[in-house]
Amino acid sequence: MREGWLVRLATDAGRVGYGDCAPLPQAGTESIESAAACLADWTTTLPGLSPEAALGRITASADSAPAAICGLETALFDLLAQQARLPLARWLNPRSSAAVKVNAVLGGLDRHVAERALAAAAEGYSVLKVKVGLMAGHEEIHFLHDLARCLPTGISLRLDANCAWNEKEAEGFLGALAGLPVESVEDPLASPDMASWFRLQAKVPFPLAADESLQIMGADAVFNQPLVRRVVLKPMVLGGLGVALALTHRAREANVECVVTTTVDSSVGVTAALHLAAAVNNDLAHGLATSAWLEEDVGNPPLPANGVLQLGGRLGLGSVPN
Fold this sequence. Notes:
Strand content: 15-25%
CATH class of the largest domain: Alpha Beta
Strand order of the largest sheet: 4-5-6-7-8-9-10
Number of strands: 11
Number of helices: 13
Helix content: 40-55%
Structural class: alpha/beta
């Protein structure tokens, strides 16, 4: 079950901005209690400030509650983009894209994974994300070879190991992927460091992507000595769209690819991540097709068609809860 808060900020001019605070400690955010305390503190600080001043206060704070800060900052970005008469993506980057490719999520490898893969391909997805590192490596390699044989031409696999292996195990698994349509592998190492990451990356043609590994190794190591080819950015974990956007600028300078993903957020959080992905404006599939995992939502989430999410022309975030 996902728990959190909607953040609603209103101005004297009648504008209303929304943000999503959905902490998920296992993904790297604060606890639900810490998020609640952070939001309570800011409710006594922000009233009476302009959106610009409020954003300055939040940006300058050293608060260690990234999900709460993400919700507050998103609501302020929503207000400022509305004030500028722009959709949020264009406010973040005037050259933002109007549509974002997304990956399908298949879960782990089991006897039904081929069925799920073919269904996703029929819906127009070209990148299918699969969890690995959940069973013995040779078993998963067998599943992946069987899966690859049934995939239509042009469909690729994005594998996520969630920091499952030591370097020797990772090397063996990655080597056994030769000949398979692998688009990337996320977080192969349980204890990543730049030296071991470089050794692994040098042995495979596809990118190794740093998600949790980005937090472990640190952005300075990743971008100052760019041995990492791809990073995964989660606004709820990083502390908002602003921090994530700054990382995309560093990544671009270091020739590192960026993929934006949610942490299974509400429609407001997914829409915010969609605007960020549009501002990144690359041709990669982003991890935003997660709304179907929720039985109920606070509003109408963006829904993919043919593996793509479209941005409407509404000003600001463009996501209003029910």
